[in-house]
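Homework help board

Subject: predicted structure for assignment chain

Our instructor gave us this sequence and asked us to write out the predicted structure in token form, then describe one feature. I got the tokens but I'm not sure how to describe them. Can anyone check?
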Amino acid sequence: MPQINTLADAQAALRPFYNNARTPYTLDMMRQLMGHLGNPQNALQVIHVAGTSGKTSTAYYCASLLVASGKTVGLSVSPHVDTVNERIQINGMPLSEADFCRDLGDFMDIIAGSGLQPSYFELLVAMAFWEFGRHGVDYAVVEVGLGGLLDGTNVIDRPDKLCLITDIGYDHTEILGNTITEIATQKAGIIQDKNVVFMYEQSDDVMAPVKRTVAERGATLLVFDETIQVSRVGLPMFQSRNLGLAQQAVGYVLQRDYG
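My token output:
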């Protein structure tokens, strides 16, 4: 493998994985890959964030609030804005260029030894879980890439995973479905057995499939309305909603885990 010394080198090394997107959409490759790595995702306390709008900012808010509480926090987001190392963050900072390049080289050696061919997204999500395990994070905040049910992040098998579902609307209809109910069903797919789910009250077309999934999974649904008290700090209303949801979720996990 060519030396990976810069972020430009990293993008060049990742380019062959662009064309390995799953068609049809499936979790088979991701499950095999995580199994090869020893399933590090299942050793993590995870806050899993799905939705159509607001999921990235909500994930950032959750991570920032946890860091402010003195916790070591991993954050996995996509897509990146400027550079690929933004996708894997520790305590609010992307991995440094040197660390990302070194670790990507090591990780790609592991992938090569597995004989597996993950997609670009799958490889970077798997690397994020791997990094979070190596850093011994207290919490991992993980943003869904697309949908939820069959998204590459949806390989976390822990009853204490916390799920956040932000506002749901029409997106990626060619994959997720043509109706809000179909799309909401896909987003609700992140809910696993016994998970706790946080969300705002939304339309019946959203709430019905979420409630159905919660019942099927023996999960717990906590629904909030617009009366949540939020430290707005001059934020626009939509960001206040996202911050409010993050505050509720982080308050819950800190009380649950630390009393």
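Reply (TA_rk): Your tokens look well-formed. For the description, you could write something like this. The domain at 40-96+137-258 is CATH 3.40.1190.10 (UDP-N-acetylmuramoyl-L-alanine:D-glutamate ligase). That's the kind of observation they're looking for.
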